[in-house]
UniProtKB/TrEMBL annotation:
Residues 168-299 form the TIR domain. Its main location: membrane. GO terms for biological process: signal transduction. The lineage of its organism: Eukaryota, Metazoa, Spiralia, Lophotrochozoa, Brachiopoda. GO terms for molecular function: signaling receptor activity. It is found in: Membrane. This is Uncharacterized protein LOC106150873. The keyword Cell cycle does not apply. The gene is LOC106150873.
Amino acid sequence: MLADNDDPWFGLKPSDLAQEAGYDVLCLLLRKFESDQIRKFMITRTLEHVSAEMSLDDFFLPTDGIINNFPVEVQKQKVQRLKKWAHSKKFKTIQGIKAGLTAQGREKLCVIAAERYANVAKVITDMSWKRYESLREDLSTAQFMFQELPIPALEAQSQEISMEHESFQYDAFLIHSGEDKPKVEEVLELLESRDIRCCYAPRDFLPGRSILSCIEDAVELSRCTVVMVSENFMKSTWCQHERDVAEVKAKDTEGYSVIPVLLGFKPSDLPSAYKVKKFILADSQDFIPTLVKAIEGIFLSRSLYLMGFISLHY
């Protein structure tokens, strides 16, 4: 039997083996998942999703200090405690998370975790190499910033960023005309398949609550607003009102962003109020990756702002 250091494959990564065998495409794919930052990112997104799926009755960790009357605060506390649990158990892989949940008798959550992890893995698999490098660079930048901070500041700012991230129910509120529903739902599906949490009025507005209140809630609970600009949108008074609410939020809140997306609408026909913002063309080849990057970039920028490294002006 060969010792490890006598084995010709000893020390080689899966991507190295694929390259040796001449599978260049597989080699590039495997390399995406050899980054520590990416692996941590995948585990973090998985734990956040598992936490959101757990009621307090299902929660297997201590719930002392959690006030059930405040849903946003409950979610914050659940996420934080679940992450601390995984860290204390040294769970760094999905296999570890699944084993831990199974040991707690939470087989259903084990399945949910596996499905979410697979979903995040698919998103990363489908990313262009350019988009992947951008994500890894963003994660590395954030990690470097944290490492440079003194420990007390690190703990305080890390908690502030974590709590702010978890306080948003959605990553993006989609404003659109009902006439554009088929196209918007196509965009919605593509965004959510990439792990972007969207607020979509026909699905997420509460029945019986006034439209005005629902719009205000959606803006408050979302990290940004995506405005789907079309001929139909421009003719709708309600759409204009939704945009106005989002613009007020953007003016009053450092780091809140309104992202215009042009649905078959000519840039030259945009009103002056829209031209001051960068817009995204829905008919461009890289529309969805560009939109995802814009939405995800808001979180990183906001994080660096909270850490005092940049100022935000949108």
